[in-house]
Amino acid sequence: MKKALIFQGGWEGHEPEQVADILGGVLKEEEFEVNITNTLSTLEEEDLSHYDLIVPNWTQDQISREQLDPLMKVVENGTGLAGLHGGMGDSFRMETDYQFMVGGQWVAHPGNDGVTYQVRILDSSHPLTEGLEDFTVVSEQYYMHVDPAVNVHAVTRFPIADGPYKENGEVDMPVVWSKKWGKGNVYYCSLGHVAEIVRMPEVIELMRKGMKWAAR
Question: Which of 121, 119, 158 is nearest to 135 (CA)?
Answer without folding.
Answer: 119
